[in-house]
Prior knowledge:
By secondary structure, this protein is α+β, with helices and mostly antiparallel strands.
Amino acid sequence: MAPLADFEKHRPQLWAVAYRITGSVADAEDALQETWLRWQLLPDDEAANPAAYLTTVVSRICLDQLGSARSRRETYVGPWLPEPIVGMVLGTVPGPEDRITLDETVGIALLTVLEKLTPAERTAFVLHDVFSMPFTEIAEVVGRTPTSVRQLASRARKRVRAESPRCSVDRAEHRRAVDAFLAAVMNGDFESLLSVLDPDVVWRSDGGGKVSAARRPVCGHENVARFAQGISRGFDPLSMRVLVRDVNGAPGIVSVDLAQGRVMVFAFTVHEGRITEVYAVANPDKLRHLRHLRHPDQLDHPDHPGYLDPLGL
């Protein structure tokens, strides 16, 4: 049996790979569980390079998951958005530079664009462009030649560049825009809200048919401003917390209805000080991993891992 220590050593990296390939916390966890089961069955003498073996296995599992997921998403109600990560992104090691720039590779914007790629293109792009895996090793994952894999990654890269929204990698600029957006919404200041929204801003809501949400993107700063204000009017100030928290590595917003136990997560892209994209995830099936945020004691204590950093509004 292959040693547990080797698997645990590489778990953060494996999770990071799985999440970026699938865009799903649940699928990433399932992929890691299946990888662990296969790792247990591997004889010790075949585990000469644990990192390479485990990455190949988890990537193959995720590639298979993508194939079945595509058919499910074709019948999905409304826009499909990735499952958000609130707090520190697993599989990363925080450093001083993290306070300055954002990790675009795990951002909701990029993961949403990756949904438009074929499973093989997405896998090749993530493994090569994000994790620097050689084409020869990726070829073993997708079952193609290294030359074919290079072409897959090239096509994916071109589409990502063409369809990714304009965005800043400056964390302070991003945070200022999110703070201004939240303050304007909570204060009912329509003009201030317009000023922080790009004229061509797009709002995408993911309710999955489980909760009320716009089934088509809302476009234009006036429409988005009215839509945001409409949502805020439904907030009960006695039971609702609307707070800033890192969402997929960038400042975002989490709203928690303590009375009903409902959570909504908002991610943003920011360019030149204005918000260009809003991603609102409300489907409860995609927020199950955030169930700890539904309890007030996990929101109010600064030392608790579920603590949300309030704006003091």
